[in-house]
Amino acid sequence: MADLKKRIMTAVAEDLARIEEALVANLNPHFELVRETAGHLLFSGGKRLRPLLMVLGARLCGRDDDFVTRLSVIVEYLHAATLLHDDVVDGADLRRGQTVTNQVWDAPTAVLTGDFLLARALSLASESQDPAVIATIASITELMSQGEIQQLADRGNVALSEAQYMETIRCKTAVLIEGSCRVGAMLAGADAQQIEAVASYGTHVGLVFQMADDLLDYTADSQGLGKATGADLREGKLTLPVIRSLAVATGTRRERMLSILATDDFTPALLDEFAELLEGTGGLDYTREKARTLVERARASLAAFPDTPARKVMEDIADYAFAREI
Amino acid sequence: MADLKKRIMTAVAEDLARIEEALVANLNPHFELVRETAGHLLFSGGKRLRPLLMVLGARLCGRDDDFVTRLSVIVEYLHAATLLHDDVVDGADLRRGQTVTNQVWDAPTAVLTGDFLLARALSLASESQDPAVIATIASITELMSQGEIQQLADRGNVALSEAQYMETIRCKTAVLIEGSCRVGAMLAGADAQQIEAVASYGTHVGLVFQMADDLLDYTADSQGLGKATGADLREGKLTLPVIRSLAVATGTRRERMLSILATDDFTPALLDEFAELLEGTGGLDYTREKARTLVERARASLAAFPDTPARKVMEDIADYAFAREI
């Protein structure tokens, strides 16, 4: 996995540097407060996965210039806006090992800064003057907020189905990653078939990314990814490992899982016990297996493109989306 | 004033009914939760000032059809999204005599529903396929969030100048009302001069509207407009009546004002005393006079248009924006 990460980072180092420049350039003329708050989130070592995929999607389809990099900032802003608002919604303790925004800054600042980034993203999109790009960005934003609302409405619902989970993670995570890839291909003037292929890659990478995140919530320690283990459980979010385990567990194991889910005082010992139940009933393996299948579909979506460095690094990113969990 | 209101309501009754239909039609296919939360705000007897001004702006410039009414929903969504997020930010007690959203619904729901309405507004805008309309809506959204952030940053700043106040209320209130008028004129295919005239009307009506609101905060009782008297003071928002009074007050009066502003326990008696200081030092009258001047500018912006019923009701609305304060 260290090799995979190193290979990706080497291949995209120059792109990441350009994306970083574009982010700084675009944020600079604005309010000090915005820069400080959003800067905390925007410049705390995020992975820039979304803008990177827009740049790579465009390159895969034959376009490679500063205009694409400039527009790629849009999807990082949308991502940051979602993180800011999610932190208010979740009240989570840790994200990437840092204190969340609503604890450094208060909830009002997080809400308003998120709004500003959302608005700035849509302003930038409108600057593209391309109605199809604008419609895609607007539709991403709408679906993401629907996904977040659905997730909020589903909190604590132990009857949540796998299909409902897949639809929620599609909206809240995959739609933005898909859109990043799609807009990249659109900006390159790709034909409809190419655009759908790149978008399909994005959807599958997005789903895998979220499933790996949901696995990490039960398998990582807080020294690793930096997110407190069991945060989803604490927030009443049922993810695939839990949904699957509940579906197949029987007798006292199932009873015990339901009883832990009904608790609102999660001790580390209880979290460990729950994670063991997920492993024992196959919920974690089932999720890993499903994610692996989706990685293959992501790679397969790129099959018709020439074997370029852009395609190679996109394939590596699909692998990495899952591999970071192992 | 009762006559003025009655005359406006009679003139626009049919438009308001059509706007109401468009709002319901547009919200219907969406999540139950969104409909319930946003419905509480969207269908609680709001004035529909913004969509109405888009419809009237278009009619003034010669267009009058269902497409305009359909798009006018955009500005009501933007307005509702702002109210939802403001309620989280302010923690205000009353708005239009009803419990605020974040008390009926929790802050997470208010944040996410606001995001949904914002996204829906921009999706609808992108459906217009008109890059200039889309850019205007995106830019309104951006300026509004800047205004809100500025207001948050300025909380409790007793050195706030009149110019800073005017810029903040322009961003947080006038820009949306201006934009509603502007988009109406744009949809009608008006020429640049006509568009700027209608937009100028909107800016001035928007400023007056906010100044009247800020006056009402010190002059209305909670039986009237339904907003708790002194809410701005409680939230540390310095409005023009206070800024002006602080600028002209001297000696013990000024000392007393500053001492009240430094309190965080506002009794009704203290609020009454503060309102009397605003009246006594001329802050309220100064604001009233300034608002009256802006009403005249709003009316003057329409002077070049033919004397139609649309122009007449827009003039009445300019009067009403201020008169509701008296």
* Secondary structure category of chain A: mainly alpha
Tell me, what's the shape of chain A?
A: globular
> Helix coverage percent of residues of chain A?
over 70%
- The CATH superfamily of chain A turns out to be Farnesyl Diphosphate Synthase
For the biggest sheet of chain A, the summary is: 2 strands, antiparallel
CATH topology of chain A: Farnesyl Diphosphate Synthase
Distance between the termini of chain A: 8 Å
Oligomer state equals: homodimer
CATH architecture level-2 label of chain A:
Orthogonal Bundle
Fold and architecture overview:
Chain A has 326 residues and is mainly α. Chain A has one domain: Farnesyl Diphosphate Synthase (Orthogonal Bundle). Chain A contains 15 helices and 2 strands. Chain A starts with a helix and ends with a helix. The relative contact order of chain A is 0.12. About 3% of the residues of chain A have low confidence.
Quick synopsis:
Helices cover 76% and strands 1% of the residues of chain A.
Show the helix and strand layout.
Two copies of one chain form a homodimer.
Chain A: H1 2-27, H2 32-42, H3 49-60, H4 66-90, E1 94-95, E2 98-99, H5 101-104, H6 107-127, H7 131-153, H8 162-187, H9 192-219, H10 231-234, H11 240-248, H12 251-262, H13 268-280, H14 283-301, H15 309-323
Antiparallel strand pairs in A: 1-2
